[in-house]
Amino acid sequence: MPSNQLTIGSRGSKLALFQANWVKSHLEAAHSDVTVVIEIIRTSGDVFLDAPLSQIGGKGLFTKEIEDALLDGRIDLAVHSLKDLPTVLPDGLSLAAVSHREDARDALLSNKYGSLKELPKGARVGTSSLRRQSQLLRLRSDLVVANLRGNVETRIRKLDEKQYDAILLACAGLDRLGFQNRIAERLSVQQLCPAVGQGALGIETREADTGTQARLQCLHHVPTHCAVTAERSFLRRLGGGCQVPIAGHAWIRETWIELLGVVATTDGRQLFRDQARAPVDRAAELGSQLAERLLDNGASDILESNSVL
User: Fold this and answer.
1) In the predicted structure, residue 54 carries a pLDDT above the cut 90
2) What are phi and psi for residue 78, nearest 5 degrees?
3) 235-308: CATH superfamily
4) At what angle do helices 283-294 and 222-238 cross, to 10 degrees?
5) What is the CATH number of domain 106-187?
6) Catalytic residue among 33, 68, 72, 84
7) Does residue 285 have a pLDDT over 60?
8) Stated pTM of the model
9) Is 5-101+198-220 assigned to CATH 3.40.190.10?
10) Which residues, at least 6 apart from 201, have a Cβ–Cβ distance to it below 8 Å?
């Protein structure tokens, strides 16, 4: 492979390719001697589209095959939605850059109702996320949560076909694809705490590939990296994946970082929420400490029970 060519590994959805092309354009703008190409790689999460994510099981549903290509040398970097990237990476790989985070909140989409509050009792809400399901039912136990899989366009089409009264999606993906006008309500992080890393892109490389890592620094956003470091440390200590309703969101305020963490049962009847702050240079420590606090306060019982499997 020519030294002045970089190959990005990406999933094939419209959103994934938008994100990969965003990285490509910024790399080529910052490095005039570099040519960037994109290789589409199909992941397990793209193959099994009918079953809920929680039933497919395993970590790295949307990343493993891309990481295998990275380790094999077929690609030079992988562009992920950071929320899909496990907190423990395979040996030999590293998180080389984290992009500036877009809107991390979740969005409610509905063709009939303007907000979560307006949804009538028994309204059918589509989501594939146990995190969203648990917090939604905590807020509105009278709603019916139904499984919803597929790319962004497919999910919106199912809403338009009246299979659901409303659906929940990430604001960042909708904004990137130009679907802002479909959003009925952007839900606050206090209503629905986002997924760890939501709204940011994680760019993964081989650990030894210092040349590619150096080129990627033009994309790296230090405040976002600090925030997601706290979030990923929180999730790593809890040991959660797609099968566990865990949420975490951090933000920077001057020299401090604040972190909100949530652990819940899938039906939302039990929900542990806590918030803590620390100096920005202690982001990883903050995440693990908040996780410990939630575990001590009862979240450990949720994580150990069959209700989260």
Assistant:
1) no
2) -120, 135
3) Porphobilinogen deaminase, C-terminal domain (3.30.160.40)
4) 30
5) 3.40.190.10
6) 84
7) yes
8) 0.91
9) yes
10) 19, 22, 23, 79, 80, 81, 82, 98, 99
Residues whose CB falls within 8 Å of the CB of residue 277, separated by 6 or more in sequence, listed in order: 253, 256, 257, 258, 259, 286
> What pLDDT digit, counting tens, does each position of 95-146 carry?
999 999 999 999 999 999 999 999 999 999 999 899 999 999 999 999 999 9
Give the angle 222-225-228 at the CA atoms, nearest 5°.
Answer: 155
Amino acid at 183: I
Supply 195's token pair: 């997924």
CA atoms within 13 A on the CB side of 287: 27
H-only helix segments in the chain:
14-30, 44-47, 53-56, 64-72, 130-139, 152-160, 171-176, 210-215, 222-238, 283-294, 300-304
Q: What is the separation of C-alpha 306 from the centre of its chain, rounded to a whole number of angstroms? A: 24
Closest CA to 44 of 148, 123, 149: 149
Contact 109, 167 (CB under 8 A): yes
- Mean pLDDT taken over the chain: 92
Q: Are 108 and 168 a contacting pair, CB within 8 Å?
A: yes
Structure tokens at 102: 């877009």
Whole-angstrom Cα distance, residue 173 to residue 168?
Answer: 12
**Dist. CA 76–CA 8, nearest whole Å:** 6
Return the C-alpha torsion angle 67, 86, 107, 220, nearest 10: -70
84 is catalytic: yes
Task: Say how far apart CA 56 and CA 75 lie, in whole Å.
Answer: 27
